[in-house]
Request: fold
Amino acid sequence: MTVNAQKNANAIPGVQLSDGFVIPQLGIGTYQLPNDEAEAIVAAGLELGYRHIDTASLYKNEEGVGKAVAASGLDRSDVWVTTKLWHTDHGDPLGGLRASLDRLQLDYVDLFLIHWPTPKLGTAWQAWEGLIEARELGLTRSIGVSNFEIEHLERIIGDTGATPSVNQIELHPHHQHRELVEYCKQRNIVIESWSPLAQGRKQLFADPAVADAAKAHGKSPAQIVLRWHLEKGFVVFPKTATASRLGENLDIFDFELTAAEIEAIDALEGLGESSISPYDMNG
Ligand SMILES: NC(=O)c1ccc[n+]([C@@H]2O[C@H](COP(=O)([O-])OP(=O)(O)OC[C@H]3O[C@@H](n4cnc5c(N)ncnc54)[C@H](OP(=O)(O)O)[C@@H]3O)[C@@H](O)[C@H]2O)c1
Reply:
């Protein structure tokens, strides 16, 4: 490992989870990257100093992610790997996780999430009990959920008494979920922002609230948006298929937004489209 990679890795803050583990606040998203691209991007990212990868069985790239982690030569304990349970495996969460581990060629993941609550199916609540068992068996260190609204969180916490360590939700300046974020904050549930860059939409990057801050700090609009997430305490893993952007997305630890800049970005709530509504997908 190069001195620079170690320096970059050290610059990424950790976020304390309620279960005692510490998750790197910045990682690499891998949605829409096929195996070979995921392998190349994750390998390049680990070489640069990234230490956190977000994948899912749905993404069909766990093999590529696992190969890059193995080839990095890093200690397993130095890389955070998250994967997710798709709703077709809600009936057998342990089987779903073991299949993911097999593809990743890992003995455990750091974080295992229920990918969607799929309330019309009604199968996610029982699946949560399987995640608790997976943690007890040491197949995952931490457990959490994704795309859960307050009522879904109430349901699983009420049923089991076990609070998820994280809730991974679509979150960016156009779509801030303030009530849900506040609910999670009060219960020590860390928020992970998916689509932190609003999937790279120009409408967000060109907005004066973002563009003016970029000019003032000598940073790119994407770096400003990622910095906004960090200062809110959210965990982020922007996705890029462009290796040169990995360095750009990592270069966000040498400046801070002013209170006025944060306020201006906060005011973008509701201006853009949501990437996807949870209720559009699998009920
Ligand atoms: N739990 C869930 O249901 C869920 C849903 C969606 C996503 N996720 C996770 O969250 C991760 C991130 O979300 P996402 O992939 O939807 O969207 P995103 O990270 O907000 O945006 C990705 C887009 O932004 C572009 N981009 C990346 N860095 C950039 C930069 N520095 N400047 C300009 N454009 C840049 C990328 O382009 P290029 O690739 O061309 O560079 C890509 O088009 C996913 O990969 C996945 O791991 C989870």
User: Anything to note?
Assistant: Confidence is low (pLDDT under 50) at residues 278-283.
